[in-house]
Structure formats: C-alpha cells, structure tokens
Design brief:
The complex is a heterodimer. Chain A is an alpha+beta fold. Chain A is built from three helices and four strands; from the N terminus they run E-E-H-H-E-E-H. Chain B is an alpha+beta fold. Chain B folds into two domains: 270 residues, no CATH class; 116 residues, Alpha-Beta Plaits (2-Layer Sandwich). Classes of the chains: A alpha+beta, B alpha+beta. Chain A: This is AtuA-like ferredoxin-fold domain-containing protein.
C-alpha cells in the first residue's frame, strides 16, 4: 500500500527550503506512519530533488509529521528553473511512498 | 465574553475578488484583511516605483478597493492590507481617491512604511543567511530589502481611528493579530495571547487554503463547490478562544483536516514559529469540530519574541530563457527525448552562455524527476528547456533553439512557445529590531 491510502499532505516553501506535512486520516495509523516514514526514508525518496538535510518534527496532537528539507527547490522559488518552482507537487510525490501493510 | 470576527479577503496578490465581497456583505465581520505581498512581489513593486513615484503598490489595489470599500464602509468593517507593497503612501492616496470618487464620506486611512532598509543594508556587515556573505558585498545587484514589521504600528493606527490600513512589508499574521490586540487591550508581551492571536493569523493568511482550497483529492478529500470557495473567518474571544469558520452557504469546507494542513503550511519547527511579535508554539495545537464548518482551536501558546527582524532581500540574478514544444502519438516519448538531445547539442555548438540549464519532459519527469516509477508510454509529451544567463540576449537564444525544432527537429513537433525574463531572486537576513523604525501617516477622505 502507499502512504497516500492513509495520510494526506501539504507542501510549503521558504526560500530554498521545502516543508511537507504528513497527516494521518485516522489517528490509529499515526504510530505506524511515525515508525516507517523516517527522515532517512524521505531523503532517499527525494533523491535527485532534495540535496540537503531532512529534519522531522512530530505533532502528535494533529497525527502529523512535518519534514523540513534543505536545498530542495533548485535555489528557491524566485530563481529555480523548475516548472513547479514552489515544489507544491512534492507533497503528492511523498504520498507515493510504499508503506508496509499492517500485520 | 466579548469577541470579534476577522475575515481573510485574499491569500495572494492575484487572488479571487468576489469571496472578499461575500465576506463583507454576509460574513458579519469586524475586520477584513488582505494578504497580497509575496516575497518577490515587493522587489517587482520597487522597480515599478523607480519608474513612476506614484506606483509601486499592488496592481489590483484599485479593483479590490472599488469592490469592497463601499460595503465595508456601510457595514463598519475596517480593512488592513499589505497592498501598499513598495509604496504604502501612494496606495493610501489611491484609496482616498476611490473613497472620494465613490462618495463614501469620511474615511481615515493610515499608511505604514519604514520597512524599506535597502540603503542601510548596502553598507551593512549583516550576513546573508543563505550565503554567509556580508550584505554590502551585494550592493551593486540589490533591488530591495524589506524588514518584516510586526503588529505594533497597526495597533497604533487602529487606536488613532484608522478605518483602512495600508502597509508595506509586515509579517502576514501580524495583520490579523493587530485588531485582536487593539480590541482586547492585550499587552504586547502577553506571549500566550500573542501566540494565540498569531495562530489565527497563520491559519487565515492564505485565504481559501483553510476552507478547502489547495486540499481536494477526489474520492478521498472531496470539497464541494470550489468554484465558489468561501474565504475564512476567525471568531476570536477576549480570552484567546478561537473558532475558524466561513460564510454560511459559501463553497468549500472547514474541517479539522483543512486546519491541520494549513497550520503546518510554511512552518519548520512547530514549537518555534518566529514572527516579529512572538515566538509562537503550535506543537500542542488541537482542532475540534464543534459544528459543521466551525473548528475550535486549542493548545496554542507563545514565548518572547527575538531581538532581530527578518529582512527579505531582492537582487538581480540574471535572465531566464525558456522554450517548449509538444510531441504526440506513438513514439512521442522517443521524439521528445531526441528533441532534448538536439537542443542540448545546439546550445553547445552555437555557444550559448548559460550558468545553469534544465531539460524536462512535461508529462514524464518535469515535476518529480525519478522519484516516481516511470509511467507507461504517454500519448503526448512536452519538451521544456530552461536556462539562466547573464544577459537577456543569451537567455533569448534558449527559446530560439527549441523553436527551430519545428523545421529542424523530430517529426510532428507542434505548439512551440518561448520566453525570456529578468530574474529578481530573494535571499534573507536578520536585522536588529531597533534599526527598523515604522512610520505612520494619515490621510483623510
């Protein structure tokens, strides 16, 4: 299954930094997502797009994780050559991550 | 418990106009706030002001004010906006002209400036955060430098009876915080309340993004009537209690999940959301649906603000050229790839001087590079080549090399387009708070 099946997501941009929230639809999936969707996995998932460090913040009251990705927007929205200079579409790309089905 | 209702009339400079009219007419609001100033907008506005000293405010200011000012005046709604951009005084003068022309009677307009620190920065050792270089080393390419000003001057303007406040660069949430401080007499170092009031601003500052915009996922997160999306309203009580809602009967939806997405939008550490007014803490925030389209916000607090203000620095960063062309039908992908190879070689042969080049196939890899598994052969692809150059002349050549694929490239290439533009890019710096002195001027209609 994909992260898309159990979570939703939104991207924000500040300069050359992209942040992506991952929010579970159902709180019962939070622990599972927290365990699997690590900063290391997210960094590997975005290989070729995110060149810098990925830091994860946890917001349990929202059933949410927030990934802050450095050097992720081709120099930033105002100078990037990318079609999606804001990286708005990155949230959907993250939801394409495969996640093990529940035991 | 006393409460006020604040509406958000725009989430960016080009946003829809009629949702704000709907808010003013039917939203039963006391304040209408328009956030219209993206990072780069002010650098572009600065150039407009240099060409014409009566310009440099938001290009849609006239249209927006003509639409909402008569209704706001009738309903006693005060307007706060950063549509002043690089020239708040000229923006305020335009609002006075509109009020007079429409015969709206007495109106007090405040123009808040003082955010422009470009001259100070040109001779400053202040480090650019992204590069570590002193700001003075960029003096020759600097276009603009604007400090994010906080709520204080807006609170003062409200206390002096302003009906309309036109600002330059202020922090987006501060525009929503100011009426709360003014109405409830909160102390500006009551960090808990200021944190709560800042959360209100953060949730509302992007307009429809909290009422179902930037959210719909057909089949999973359905949102009704996005073509008539209602913009948000915050109902805030004197003790800092918050409810997020929208105009009854408007399109869109306000749910716990729309609020969850928006509170984390453009946030890094949720425990440390820095604004000129406070260090807000969203790390324990909760959203509870108390009625359909009414979400109660809890768990927000704040700590002392920092001693520095963020400055947005705009600079000339060369020129960007672009060309696109489409291929369709069987073999579209192979022809698209061939086209990219041809352009790559042409740029070399003809000696186009580019500092950075990018080759995309729209429909294949332009957004997600290789993150997603390759799709089955697409029925159409669009070639896109972009590059950054030091001169307009060089940038133009990139689009030209794509266009010539018409007669020199693979079979059946169609719909070529090309463009070239000057790039004003943004960096940031931190500037001592006491070196930024807001200035308030009043105009009366």
């Amino acid at each position: 299954m994909k992260l898309f099946d159990i979570a939703h997501s939104r991207t924000g941009d500040k300069g050359n930094i992209s942040n992506i929230s991952v929010i579970v639809y159902d709180q019962k999936d939070y622990e599972r997502v927290r365990e699997y969707v690590t900063p290391e996995r997210v960094k590997a998932h975005f290989k070729g797009i995110v060149n810098g460090e990925v830091v994860r913040y946890e917001i349990p009251t929202l059933g949410a994780l927030n990934f802050v990705m450095q050097d992720a927007l081709g120099g930033g929205v105002t100078r990037s050559l990318a079609l999606d200079a804001h990286g708005k579409c990155l949230a959907s790309a993250l939801l394409a991550m495969d996640i093990p089905a529940k035991n | 418990m006393r409460f006020i209702r604040i509406g958000s009339g725009a989430g960016y400079s080009g946003d829809r106009i009629e949702p704000a009219v709907e808010l003013a007419e039917k939203g039963n609001i006391n304040y209408l706030v328009f956030e219209c100033l993206a990072e780069r907008t002010i650098a572009i506005a600065q150039n407009a002001k240099l060409n014409d000293p009566t310009k440099g405010y938001d290009p849609l200011l006239t249209e927006r004010f003509e639409a909402v000012l008569p209704i706001c005046k009738k309903n006693g709604i005060k307007i706060i906006t950063n549509m002043g951009a690089a020239n708040p005084q000229a923006g305020a003068a335009k609002v006075r002209e509109i009020a007079t022309r429409l015969g709206l009677g007495k109106l007090k307009i405040a123009a808040i400036s003082g955010d422009d620190v470009v001259e100070a920065l040109k001779v400053s050792d202040t480090k650019i955060l992204e590069t570590g270089a002193p700001a003075s080393s960029m003096a020759s390419v600097l276009v603009s430098a604007n400090a994010y000003v906080g709520a204080a001057p807006m609170v003062e303007a409200l206390a002096n009876g302003a009906d309309v406040i036109i600002t330059g660069r202020v922090a987006d949430p501060s525009m929503f915080l100011a009426p709360q401080i003014h109405e409830f007499g909160w102390s500006q170092d009551d960090w808990d309340k200021i944190g709560k009031g800042t959360a209100v601003g953060h949730l509302l500052e992007c307009g429809g993004q909290v009422t179902g915009g930037y959210y719909a996922e057909p089949g999973k997160k359905d949102v009704a009537d996005l073509a008539r999306l209602g913009f948000p309203i915050a109902e805030v009580s004197e003790d800092g209690a918050i409810v997020i809602t929208k105009v009854e009967g408007s399109g869109g939806t306000v749910t716990e999940h729309t609020c969850k997405e928006q509170i984390l939008y453009e946030v890094h550490d949720p425990k440390t959301y820095l604004t000129p007014d406070v260090t807000a803490d969203f790390s324990q925030i909760t959203f509870t649906e108390i009625a359909p389209n009414r979400i109660q916000v809890g768990g927000v607090t704040g700590r002392a603000r920092t001693d520095t203000l963020k400055v947005s620095v705009g600079y000339n960063d060369g020129y960007m050229g672009e060309g696109q062309i489409s291929y369709a039908g069987p073999g579209a992908l192979a022809r698209g790839q061939l086209a990219l190879e041809i352009v790559k070689e042409r740029l070399k042969i003809t000696g186009v001087k580019a500092n950075e080049l990018r080759f995309d196939l729209i429909g294949v890899n332009s957004i997600h590079a290789d993150v997603l598994a390759p799709a089955p052969e697409p029925t159409e692809v669009r070639v896109r080549v972009t590059g950054r150059c030091d001169s307009m002349k060089e940038a133009v050549r990139i689009g030209n090399e794509v266009e010539t694929l018409y007669t020199n490239g693979p079979a059946s290439g169609g719909g070529a387009t090309k463009s070239a533009k000057q790039v004003v890019a943004m960096l940031s710096a931190l500037f001592p708070r006491d070196k930024v002195v807001p200035v308030i001027e009043y105009l009366e209609a």
